[in-house]
Amino acid sequence: MTFDEEWNRLVAAAAERKATGMRLNQLDGDGGGSGVATSSGELTVDQKDLAAVGDAAFDLRERLRKDGEHARESSNSAAAGLRGDFEIGEALSHVATRWQEQLRSLTDACGHISNHLEYTDKAHANNEQHISGLFNSVNRLNEGFDERTQRQ
What is the rounded average pLDDT for all residues in the chain? Predict the structure, then answer.
């Protein structure tokens, strides 16, 4: 079998599978998430979607930090009160320590998501501005060529 024959067979098989392929974050009709599947099958989102996810991650981080601190204080206070008379006090102290470690990991992850999406938003905006500037300079260059050809 030649390369072209094999390629055509694979393309046809992929086209058949595409009809039954998986759709992510989208319902039939008007429903579904805000992500949009393009005709090439790529999922796209806009800056507003990224900003909303970044804001939600930041809000979650701040709330976890505030509520987690309250839980830490309460747990440590209870553990200290129980430690003198009951063995459960030491166990509660151990649980509170583990809770803090896990909470720190979770708040760090939320912060990372928020920061990364903010960076991504700014980077894409800078790229758009740069590309727009390149196109504007090409347009000015084309205008100069058009002006030169019209004078002759």
Answer: 78
Which residues neighbour 23 within 8 Å (Cβ) at sequence distance 6 or greater? 37
Q: Which residues have a Cβ under 8 Å from the Cβ of 26 and sit 6 or more positions away?
A: 32, 33, 35, 36, 37
| Cα–Cα distance, 53 to 58 (Å, whole number) | 9
Mean of the pLDDT values across residues 117-136? 79
**pLDDT tens-digit series, residues 70-123:** 888 888 888 888 888 888 888 988 988 998 999 999 999 998 988 888 787 778
Q: By C-alpha distance, which of 121, 152, 1 is closest to 54?
A: 121
Break the chain down into helix, strand, coil percent, rounded to 5.
75, 5, 20
Distance (Å, whole) CA 34 – CA 24: 11
Contact (Cβ atoms closer than 8 angstroms) between residue 27 and residue 34 = no
| Cβ partners under 8 Å of residue 106, min gap 6 | 64
Q: What is the pTM of this model?
A: 0.50
CA-to-CA distance for 16 and 8, rounded, in angstroms?
A: 12
